Amino acid sequence: MMNSNVSICILDYGSGNVASVRNTFESLGFSAVVSNLTEDMKKSTHLVLPGVGAFGASMKSIEANIPLDSMQNEILKGKPFLGICVGMQVLATKGLENGEHAGLDLLPGTVVRFSALSVPVPHVGWNDLSLHSNNPLFFGLDEESDFYFVHAYHMVPDQSDLILATTNYEVNFVSAVCKDNVFGVQFHPEKSQKSGRRLLTNFAGLH
C-alpha cells in the first residue's frame, strides 16, 4: 500500500543507480519519481541525490542537468535531503579526486582519498557503523547493522558536530553526516538489504 503523504524526488545526473533507489523506495510503499524538474522538486516531500563515479565529473553533470537554485530553494524550505555515496561527497565544499573541484558546499568539508592503507582501495563490501548521534535517520538500527560500501574517497567534515557515524576500514572514516535537514551516507542503502531498507524508511519519515 502506497504512503500518500510521502513523495520522493530522486535527482538524476546520469550516475546510473537512480532506478535501484527508486525501486527500493517504491517497494517500501513510498511514491518516488526520477526527475530534475523544478515542479517535481516542489511537489515532493523529500529529495534524494544518488551517485556513483568521480567527484569532478559528477559535479559537472550535476551542474549541467540539475537546476541547483530550485534544489537549494527546496532545501532552504526544510525539505529532507539525502545524498548517497558520491551524492554525499558532492555536498562537501571541495573534492580532491583528480585535482581540486568545488562541491555544493552544503556541508563544510573536503573529500579525500584513502591513503597509506594495507587494505585494498577502493573499499568494497559490507561494513558496520559507529554511531555518533541518536539521529532519527538511524532509528531501529545499531552498531551491528551492516551496510554496503563502494568508494576510494571519503568526506572529512570541517566540524565534528556534522558527523552522524564513522566506519573502520583500517582507519576510521566518516560514513554518515547531517546538517539540519541535509543528510549524507557514504554507503549504498539501496544495496544494503534490511539495514538499508530501514534507513530509507526512516528518511521517508522525516519531515
Task: Please outline what is shown here.
This protein is α/β, with parallel strands linked by helices. The chain has helices at residues 18-27, 38-43, 55-65, 68-76, 86-89, 193-204, and strands spanning 3-10, 30-34, 46-49, 81-84, 94-95, 101-102, 109-113, 123-128, 130-131, 146-151, 153-157, 163-169, 171-179, 182-185.
Distance between the termini: 20 Å
How much helical structure, as a percent, in the residues? 25-40%
What general form does the structure show? globular
CATH architecture: 3-Layer(aba) Sandwich
Number of helices: 6
Tell me the strand percentage band.
Answer: 25-35%
Structural class: alpha/beta
CATH topology: Rossmann fold
**Secondary structure tally: strands:** 14
Order of helices and strands: EHEHEHHEHEEEEEEEEEEH
Largest sheet: 8 strands, mixed
Question: What is the CATH homologous superfamily assignment?
Answer: Class I glutamine amidotransferase (GATase) domain
Which descriptors would you attach to this protein?
207 residues, 14 strands, 6 helices, eight-stranded mixed sheet, alpha/beta
